[in-house]
Each structure stands twice: as structure tokens, then as C-alpha cells.
Amino acid sequence: MTAAWLRQDAPGSHIVSLHVQPGARKTEIAGLHGEALKVRLAAPPVDGKANAALVAFLAEQLDVPRSQVALISGATSRQKRLRVSGASAQAIAVFLSRAEGAARSG
Question: What band does 71 get if pLDDT is binned at 50, 70 and 90?
Fold first, then answer.
């Protein structure tokens, strides 16, 4: 894995660095923001709704249960780090491919 925003933390566990834009029209991967993957979220940044939406979106993208995705830093910041456990190598590869496509087009 060569993406600066994704690193393996332990076997079967990855840390994803994100720049989050809450209150967007739709939830999507939007390319890169520095060394973080940019994600637009439709959820507003109110009462943890954006964080919950981010966890749900990442879990869906990586085909893991929401309980396998944990916010480890940035609860009140646009810069966030999440730990994803149990994602298969195939799911990570598909996610990387989508993210790289978004980075090229966005």
C-alpha cells in the first residue's frame, strides 16, 4: 500500500487519515487533501452526526460491520483518523482503486 492516507496498523487493521467536509450534497470520496483522503459527507457536523455517517460510509466501502471502524482522533476536527479492523485485502484494494480514481478526477 503506497497511499500516504492508508497504513497498516497491525495484521488485519488499518489506519485511514481523512479530511472530512460535512454538510455536502452527497456522501462520496472526493480525492486528496494534502496527505489525507478527502470525504464529503451529506450529514451535518451536529451532535456527532457527521462522525456516525463517516463510520457508516467507511464500513460500507470496506465491507465490514460498523463495529469494526473506530474513530481514533479528530472527533471535533475535519482531520480524522479511523482504525478499520477485519477488512479483506480485496476490499482494501477496491477502496484504494476508488480513492485513486476520485483523486485523479477531483
Answer: very high
For 11, counting Cβ atoms within 10 Å of its Cβ (0-12 exposed, 13-18 middle, 19+ buried), the class is exposed
Q: How many residues does the chain have?
A: 106
With vertex at residue 82, the alpha carbon angle to CA 32 and CA 76, rounded to the nearest 5 degrees, is 85
- The x, y and z cell numbers of residue 79, run together, are 482531520
Could you tell me the pTM of the whole model? 0.89
* Structural domains of the chain, ranges and CATH numbers in brackets: 6-105 (3.30.1200.10)
Give the residue among 29, 106, 39, 47 at the shortest CA–CA distance from 78. Answer: 39
| Closest of 55, 57, 69, 1 to residue 30, by C-alpha | 57
Other CB atoms within 10 Å distance of the CB of residue 88? 12
pLDDT per residue as tens digits for the range 25-36: 999 999 899 999
Instruction: State which amino acid sits at residue 102.
Output: A
3-state secondary structure of 65: coil
